Amino acid sequence: MAQQERAIRTRQVILQGAAEVFDEFGYDAASIKQILARVQVTKGALYFHFPSKEALARGVMQEQTLHLRLAQNASKLQQLVDVTMAVAHALPGDAMLRAGVRLALERGSVDFTDSNPLLAWADVCGGLVEEAKAQGETLPQVDAKETAELVVGCFNGIQSFSQVVSGMADLERRISILWQHLLPCVATPSTLARLDTAPGRGARALLPPEDGGSELFQ
Predict the structure, then answer these.
(1) Domains defined for the chain, CATH in brackets
(2) Which terminus, N or C, of the chain has the lesser number of Cβ atoms within 10 Å?
């Protein structure tokens, strides 16, 4: 059991170090040598868990939101808002999350389309819009897939702009503004009046891992 726990810890250390390197340099410029220097494990230990740089990158993309837990909400439009606000809150200080986003957006020497978290995010958001529509929270003309893809696309454009102008320090405020513009075209007036899109919403929606909740993109 102790050996298994040590292996799990080593794997997490490697993933965290790899995330920091991918976040700083991107996939193509990052090297196994840089990652080894960051994590201070042997090459054998790294290759035991991840046989290649590509496997490491895929591991980071799979891991990026597993540590984030979101409080459930009866309003599925509020849940949709909470997903984006939680990511906006966590992203500036979370290298694992930032690396996953960078790997998902880059078009380098490896095609990560088959495991791209942006597609999973769009699926989750689409499901939430479908549930919101079934509960009567949305306007009749709202298309769940189109809305979800618009949200994910806008979020990633805004986070890129925020990175340039403020190092993501203003990301929550900018995503809050996005919802102020978007929700009147999506939510019924009675639902709109109840939704919380304030910049601090992400911190309130996130739960400590030990408190349960759901994984962010489940």
Answers:
(1) 1-63 (1.10.10.60), 65-205 (1.10.357.10)
(2) N
